[in-house]
Fold:
Amino acid sequence: MKPASTSAISRRRFLAASARAAFGFQFFPGALRGAKAPSNRLNLACVGVGAEGIGVVNLRACEGENIVALCDVDAAYAAPTFAAYPRAKTFNDFRTMIERQRDLDAVIVATPDHTHEVITMAAMAAGKHVYCQKPLTRTIGEARRVAAAARRYRVQTQMGNHGHSSESMRILKEWLDAGVIGAVREVHAWTDRPAGGNPWSTFPVQARPAETSPVPATLDWDRWLGPAPHRPYHPDYHPLKWRGWYDFGTGALGDMGCHVLDPVFWALDLGAPETVQATTTHWEPAVSAETFPRASVVRYLFPARAGRAPVTLTWYDGRLKPAIPPELESGRKLPATGALIYGERGALLHGVSGANGLRLIPEARMQEMTRPPPKLPRIVGGHEADWLRACREGADGRPASSEFSYGAALTEMVLLGVVAIRCPDILLRWDAKAMRFTNSEVANAFVDPPPREGWAVK
Structure:
């Protein structure tokens, strides 16, 4: 059997409209896209440019650069983006793109989670700077390899957890470092996904389809599968729904955890947890073997670290939320996505994408607070701009805010919860140094599963 050729994967339709509103990106007229760039501009490529996916959002945030190449395995899905950048060369195989497009400086990877590692590794091995969407990888083993390769190849990197470049991230850390709420021992974080919002309303919670469907003529299905085990094409996978399937995505936690948990992971220097345990809505084996549940609760226990107290962190998805804190004013609701941070002397409510912002509760205490002075450097221009700045500075320059060493650590913490969701009700004990669970070989099978033949990363 001929080995599968490694390729880019088309990106599902992301929440483009809400992304534009929440992230504040401005769209340039199509006539300006792909225009010849001055010599100080970077030559960029993007892998995964289907429809209005997040790759398109990333591209639009980088339109001051020279967009020279676009890659997607689904020509019809990517057609609007190909047309929007008429000067860019188009490809359906990322390896061919990297080999032939010798003038590339940097690559954006915005494909489904299961192909992040193979594309990112190929780009870095060719000496290209890389911006990869979150989560950095689909598995823990992949995250560790990607972080090690970034250090080895000495390229500038950035994971696409855009909030890490935000003002609120730095304010939160400054407040916690100043002891505004005292030592933090408890965090609750949540998202309304997969139940909330478009396209998550179509999130599959189902067994593998028994019937087969004809592969669209414009789609290279084998390349879409990439390192994932082979299965027949079905529209329940592509476009749009891949994130709900274990073989392709990482569910609501993998998607939103890299946003919602990022602030406390960074501000509290959480590192690796000692234990993780999940309960879920799954009940039918044929379904729970294939797709993520409609809702889950995941509890992490982080040990004491360098003078910081141990932290219990509880994650909720599928529109589940923690109990309303008594400090919250009557009639005030928790946002659809956010976090509650409890300290010895108070509580903080941190909304995501501008929902309620960062506030002490009750609001009366917020109004009385003397805010600590800013101490941390701010990011100028946004998340993509920070990565572009790092690319221009080169290997010896200042890294971007969420470079792969950090992005991999955050991703690993999130993916430990994903493993727990696949092994519900078991208190999993994690040995970070050995990269294994000490009490479950079932869980260990999900840490670094082998790729499909022909797709191993060298």
